[in-house]
Amino acid sequence: MSAVWDILMHAYAMTPADCVAWRQRVDSRDLRLLREGNKVAGTLAAIRMGQWYGGRSVPVVGVGAVGVSPVHRGQGTATRLMTRLLQEARASGAPLSVLYPATQPLYRRSGYEQAGARYEIRVQMSALEMGERSLNLRAAEPRDEAAITACYSNMARFRPGWLDRGEFSWRRVRDPRSEQVHGYVVEGTSGIEGYVYLARRPLKDLKQELGLSDIVATTPAAARRLLRFLGDHHSLGTEVVWYGGPDDPFLLLLREQSYSVRVYMHWMVRVLDVVAALEARGWTRGLSGSLHLDVTDDLFPENQGRFVLDVENGQARVTRGGEGRLRLHVRQLASLYTGFQSAAALRAVGLVEADDASVEAAVALFSGPQPSLRDMF
């Protein structure tokens, strides 16, 4: 562990205290080390979780804390580390892997591609005086955790790319590494209808901003009550900051465009198993169609070749063979799979080869909201 901490301090400018806090959140069974001789040359954490696509949770292996010792950089160490991790992840049955890239060329060599973004949302505190106090708001308690988890899942399943959170992700929401977070719930006739976890961040001249590690409402009244609660901090508060997608529904309740939305970071996906990935996600009910794919994969020969994707009644069936009318690398399949890029956009820049009918079919089958992520990992 001392070698891991040394690598992380060099790679991410983490302090010893940061390393201790990070270690408390990561299960040792999720750590991977690459040794060169008798020295630890590289490390990463492989975190099992899920991502929502088409209303279904797809098992994924999240990759974090990738680091290489300074003396082993530039020698292919990170590539070997990632290759071994991907082989292990595929063998475990996970159809996808997801990560936030510190550098894209490394992960593109491993078959990852941009597949969505995490957006920072900043709202001026003065815009949050919604006048809604009909629902009860109180501090969250440990007994509320199951209801809070249910609230999150009810919303997240309609948000392509959002995590189907496990213990690791919930710890980051409720107890982030570098600040104190307080949780609050909103109660209505059906029980807990919304919640927020927030940290008060000091600024100059006694001012502060509110940083939200999570905010969810499952009813309109709960949404307005949470915004009213945040607005109650306006005497010293300047802005409220949280993360999500560009189509965050809370923004629709604001009277003016008193907010900013910007890309914080793109995340990348690696399709580990073409057949399993396409069959695991959900698809638009009432929409049916077929797509003949021809996939190239430099690492997994099982993903190489032609596949026929048949979609009907919200489910997919994938078989070997077909005419291969839409030709693409497994990297571009990741962008197509999540809905981040359309087949038309990919063809326009030469990343997909296809006839018009295949492009139109792919655009229809993979259409939906832009994929986003609220969580870091």
TrEMBL record:
SUPFAM superfamilies: Acyl-CoA N-acyltransferases (Nat), SCP-like. One of its GO terms (biological process) is aminoglycoside antibiotic catabolic process. Keywords: Transferase. Pfam families: Acetyltransf_17 (PF17668), Acetyltransf_9 (PF13527), SCP2_2 (PF13530). One of its GO terms (molecular function) is aminoglycoside N-acetyltransferase activity. InterPro entries: Acetyltransf_17, Acetyltransferase_Eis, Acyl_CoA_acyltransferase, Eis_dom, GNAT_dom, SCP2_sterol-bd_dom_sf. Residues 1-135 form the N-acetyltransferase domain. This is Acetyltransferase.
